[in-house]
Amino acid sequence: MRIYVPEGGIINSEENMGYLGSLPAMYDAMHRGTVLEARAESCTPTHDLVVGLPSCKGFIPREECALGIAEGKTKDIAIISRVGKPVAFTVKDIVEEDGKPVAILSRTEAQRRCMEDYLLQLPAGSVIDAAVTHIEQFGCFVDIGCGICSMIPIDAISVSRISHPSDRFEVGDRVKAILRGYDGEKFYLSHKELLGTWEENAERFRAGETVRGTVRSVEPYGIFIELAPNLAGLAEPRSGVYPGQTASVYIKSINPEKMKIKLIIVDTYDYSPERRCEYFISGGVVDYWRYSPAECNKVIETYF
Fold this sequence. Notes:
Layout: H1 14-20, H2 23-32, E1 36-43, E2 49-52, E3 57-60, H3 77-80, E4 86-97, E5 100-106, H4 107-117, E6 127-136, E7 139-143, E8 149-153, E9 174-182, E10 187-190, H5 198-202, E11 210-219, E12 222-228, E13 231-235, E14 246-255, E15 260-269, E16 288-290, E17 301-303
């Protein structure tokens, strides 16, 4: 099974640049049906994309710019927003215009191949590459191959609760996602299962240590401090603390049976460390995932 990647993933590859470098190579790519990538330079008033190619002018007609455009299921903003960004495509034809070669391209065909030859062949629980394209309060939109869009809901991003997906991701981030299913119209994704279980995260910390964390929630009974994307502890109430701050915290105790970490805040300050996600699972297929320790009565698990 061929693996297709989010747009921008092959644009600088030797194979891609080789095909785009000359007309004979472009003809070869056309006959092979090879998926290529280049950067969209502009969008015409009729919403056709003009693509910059080394060997000739590239042109993607509006109805070939994305799956669903021809049927009215996809809005034209999906075309306009590609200007200046890499686009995936196949070469449909090479014609002459004013005595110069013009390559007629199809992003729709590249997406169709990605769907049929890759995404629809994957079982639930498959770990795939994704690229963050857009962030909303309710979730993070990602490209899961050739510009095909899906979403990771905010509650599926991590076990540690966040107020907004931008607490975890930025547009342009290359991330991993786990495929939960497909309903005939859209793919369903998750992310938190890749960030480790409670035990895997807690093993990196020891009682008596003072470490850095992020304030995620301030409640009357205490303050939740994120130590890792899938691990948070509770600190005693303290005035002047607010979500988003970085905190240095003393680890008072770690209790796997109750899945609790007790903390004491030493200090807080306005500093935002670099966002990063450490993946405990980065490939393959996951059938079952349990977050909570075996000795804990509270069970947090996912079946795929």
